[in-house]
C-alpha cells in the first residue's frame, strides 16, 4: 500500500492533470517527484520516481521525448509528466503517446498554468502521509509475523484503525531473491548496482500488483532480499488457486529477472492474526525446500513437505548430522577428495525412481558408467538398495543433506 500514480492524479488541486497513455501502470507506486533537467534521465533516477519534463532547461523535441519514455521504462520509474503550453512544449507528439502506451509507462499531461510548486507540494505531502501510514501498517504486520507483541487484542485494534483487513484467513508467501553476486562478476559495479535496484523495483511492483489482483490486499513486507506477502486463503480450494497463481507469477518473474533467481515458500492457509508467526515459520521451511529442489520450479508449499515437516521438528541438529554422516559420510568424503560424482549419481538415481537408463540420461553418462557408480556407492556405504529399509534411510539422509549443506549441490536439470 503506497501512493500510486492514480492516487497522485486524484489529489485535490491537480484536476487539470490528465492521463494520456499507459493506464496499465496507474497502480505504480510513486517514491518521489523528480524534475528532469538533463538530456536523459537514465543516470539520474533509481526507480519509482514520477518524472516531470518541462522543456525549460533543455529542448524537448519528439526524438528526445521518445528517449525519455524508453529510459523511464528501463529505469522502472512510476510515470512521466510532460508540461505543455505555448512557450516550450506545445503538445505531446502522437508518437510519444503511442510509445508510452506500448511500454506501459503512465504518461500524464500538465498545463503550464498549473504551477510546479503546487503539484510537488501536493504530491510531497501525500507521500509523507502515505509513508507514515505505510510504516505503521508494516510495523503491525511485522509484529504479528514475528509474534513480537504483548497483547494481541491491542495490536488487532490498532490494525483496525489502520484499515488492515485481518479478518480474512491468510497464508504466508515468503519470496527470496538470489544470485545477486552474478551481477557483480563484471567490472562495472555501478551498472550492476543499477541493474539490481531496477530488478528489485520491478519485483516489488509486480508482487504488489499480484496482491491487489487477489483482493483484500495487505502491505508487502520487505526484509532485505525477502518479501513477505499475506495471501487470502480461507479454504483448501483457495490455497490451491494461490499455488497455481504463484507458480505462474514465479515463472513470469524469473524469465525477466535472470541472472537473478526468485524462490518461494508457501505456508498452509487458514491462519488468523494469532497464527501469522506460525505461518511464517512454515513458509521458511518450505522456502528452504524450494531453494534445495530447484526442479520444483523454485516453489514449495508447507503441506507438500511430508517427512521434512517431521525433520524440521527435531531441535537437536546433531542428531540429523550424525544420521547423514552414518548413512552418506563415505560418499561425501569420497566426493570431497575426487571429482564429485557419487552424490550427484545417487540423487539422479533416486530422482528417476531407480531407473538406470533415465538416471544415466539425466547425468549425460553411459548406462554402464552409472551402473558402476551405483555398485561403488553400495560398496562404500555397505548398503544394498534392494533392501527397502536401507533405501528409505538413504533417501531421507539425502534429503537432509540437500537441505542443510551450505553448498546445496543439486542434480542436473
From TrEMBL:
Record-annotated Purine catabolism PurC-like domain positions: 7-126
Family matches, as InterPro entries: CdaR-like_regulators, CdaR_GGDEF, PucR_C-HTH_dom, PucR_C-HTH_sf, PucR_dom
Domain CdaR GGDEF-like: 153-287
One Pfam family from the record: GGDEF_2
Residue span, PucR C-terminal helix-turn-helix domain: 342-399
Family to which this protein belongs: Belongs to the CdaR family.
Protein name: Sugar diacid utilization regulator
Lineage, highest ranks first: Bacteria, Pseudomonadati, Pseudomonadota, Gammaproteobacteria, Pseudomonadales
Amino acid at each position: 500500500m503506497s501512493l500510486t500514480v492514480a492516487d497522485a492524479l486524484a489529489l485535490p488541486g491537480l484536476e487539470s492533470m490528465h492521463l494520456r497513455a499507459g493506464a496499465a501502470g496507474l497502480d505504480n507506486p510513486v517514491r518521489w517527484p523528480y524534475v528532469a533537467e538533463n538530456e536523459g534521465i537514465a543516470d539520474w533516477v533509481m526507480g519509482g520516481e514520477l518524472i516531470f519534463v518541462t522543456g525549460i532547461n533543455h529542448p524537448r523535441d519528439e526524438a528526445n521525448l521518445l528517449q525519455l519514455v524508453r529510459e523511464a521504462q528501463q529505469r522502472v520509474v512510476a510515470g512521466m509528466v510532460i508540461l505543455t503550453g505555448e512557450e516550450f512544449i506545445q503538445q505531446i507528439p502522437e508518437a510519444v503517446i503511442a510509445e508510452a502506451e506500448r511500454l506501459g509507462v503512465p504518461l500524464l499531461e500538465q498545463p503550464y498554468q498549473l504551477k510546479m510548486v503546487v503539484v510537488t507540494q501536493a504530491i510531497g505531502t501525500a507521500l509523507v502521509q502515505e509513508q507514515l501510514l505505510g510504516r505503521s501498517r508494516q510495523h503491525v504486520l511485522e509484529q504479528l509475523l514475528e509474534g513480537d507483541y504483548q497483547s494481541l487484542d491491542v495490536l488487532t485494534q490498532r490494525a483496525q484503525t489502520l484499515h488492515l483487513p485481518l479478518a480474512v484467513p491468510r497464508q504466508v508467501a515468503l519470496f527470496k531473491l538470489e544470485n545477486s553476486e552474478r551481477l557483480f562478476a563484471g567490472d562495472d559495479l555501478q551498472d550492476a548496482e543499477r541493474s539490481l535496484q531496477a530488478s528489485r523495483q520491478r519485483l516489488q511492483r509486480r508482487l504488489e500488483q499480484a496482491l491487489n489482483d487477489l483482493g483484500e490486499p495487505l502491505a508487502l513486507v520487505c526484509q532485505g532480499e525477502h518479501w513477505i506477502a499475506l495471501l487470502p486463503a480461507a479454504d483448501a480450494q483457495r490455497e490451491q488457486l494461490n499455488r497455481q497463481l504463484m507458480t505462474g507469477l514465479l515463472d513470469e518473474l524469473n524469465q525477466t529477472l535472470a541472472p537473478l533467481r526468485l524462490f518461494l515458500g508457501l505456508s498452509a492457509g487458514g491462519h488468523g492474526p494469532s497464527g501469522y508467526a506460525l505461518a511464517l515459520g512454515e513458509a521458511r521451511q518450505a522456502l528452504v525446500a524450494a531453494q534445495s529442489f530447484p526442479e520444483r520450479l523454485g516453489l514449495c508449499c508447507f503441506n507438500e513437505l511430508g517427512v521434512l515437516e517431521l525433520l524440521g521438528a527435531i531441535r537437536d541438529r546433531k542428531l540429523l548430522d550424525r544420521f547423514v554422516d552414518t548413512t552418506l559420510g563415505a560418499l561425501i568424503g569420497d566426493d570431497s577428495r575426487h571429482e564429485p560424482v557419487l552424490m550427484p549419481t545417487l540423487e539422479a538415481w533416486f530422482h528417476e525412481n531407480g531407473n538406470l537408463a533415465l538416471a544415466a540420461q539425466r547425468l549425460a553418462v553411459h548406462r554402464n558408467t552409472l551402473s558402476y557408480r551405483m555398485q561403488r556407492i553400495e560398496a562404500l556405504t555397505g548398503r544394498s538398495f534392494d533392501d527397502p529399509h536401507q533405501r528409505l534411510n538413504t533417501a531421507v539422509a539425502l534429503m537432509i543433506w540437500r537441505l542443510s549443506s551450505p553448498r546445496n549441490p543439486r542434480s542436473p536439470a
